[in-house]
Amino acid sequence: MKNEETKFLIASFYEIERALRDKTKPLNEADSSRLVRENLPRQYESLERAFSTTEGDILPPHRKHDHKIDPTEPLPAHFLPLYRQSEASFELRKIT
Question: Whole-prediction pTM value?
Answer without folding.
Answer: 0.38
